[in-house]
Write a structure and sequence with these properties.
Blueprint (H helix, E strand, L loop, with lengths): L2 E5 L4 E2 L1 H12 L3 E5 L8 E8 L7 E9 L14 E4 L5 H4 L3 H13 L3 E4 L3 H6 L7 E2 L6 H6 L3 E2 L8 E3 L2 E4 L5 H11 L7
Parallel strand pairs: 1-3, 1-6, 2-4, 6-7, 7-11, 8-9
Antiparallel strand pairs: 4-5, 10-11
Length: 191
């Protein structure tokens, strides 16, 4: 069975974690959901972000999400792709050296890497955006420029593909980012 590494952490965005985990599992991938300093079976808390007419998103407590693998056991060669969730967790998981090393390895290898919303913070910290085009939650766009990348503004339900990097601005883009991610993985879906 082909494996996907799903990188998350406490207060990851609920839809940006649950939907990819379930959709990729439904397609037959083994999705190893991990968080630095946590083990298989540990719970992470999610947050629900919504767009309710304010200048930025609102945040509410989401569900508990059970991790499926111990982070310290992750080996790069076991995976065909990487999905980095958004929400608040990217701001602190990007401080973990193993996270940054793994992200660099995935990007340099050409394996598909999906990053949604604030997950771009992990890409910027890993220093892998030089000359690359990505999208993200608009408030993170200055980080993209500072990291040498080009921010592409798209509707929240869209995604941007640049080589093996697949990005989307927020959870309304789950359909687009997952479609482009599984295409990059070589998965064919026939209806």
């Amino acid at each position: 069975m082909k494996k996907i590494l799903l990188l998350a952490g406490d207060y990851t965005e609920d839809y940006e974690t649950m939907v990819p985990f379930q959709a990729l599992s439904m397609l037959g991938y083994q999705v190893d959901a991990v968080c630095p300093d946590k083990k298989a079976g540990d719970l992470i808390r999610t947050s629900i972000h919504d767009f309710e007419g304010d200048q930025t998103y609102s945040e509410k407590r989401g569900h508990n999400f059970a991790l499926t693998k111990t982070f310290e056991e992750v080996e790069f060669d076991d995976y065909v792709g990487l999905f980095i969730t958004g929400g608040r967790s990217p701001e602190y998981i990007r401080l973990n050296n193993k996270v940054l090393t793994l992200v660099k390895m995935f990007v340099k290898s050409g394996k598909p890497v999906a990053a949604i919303c604030h997950a771009v913070q992990v890409l910027t910290a890993a220093d892998v955006l030089h000359g690359r085009k990505v999208t993200c939650y608009p408030a993170c766009s200055p980080d993209v420029a500072l990291a040498g990348g080009t921010y592409v503004e798209v509707a929240p339900d869209q995604s941007v593909v640049d080589g093996n990097l697949i990005t989307s601005p927020a959870w309304p883009g789950n359909t687009a980012i997952l479609r482009d991610f599984v295409k990059a993985l070589g998965c064919r879906i026939e209806i």
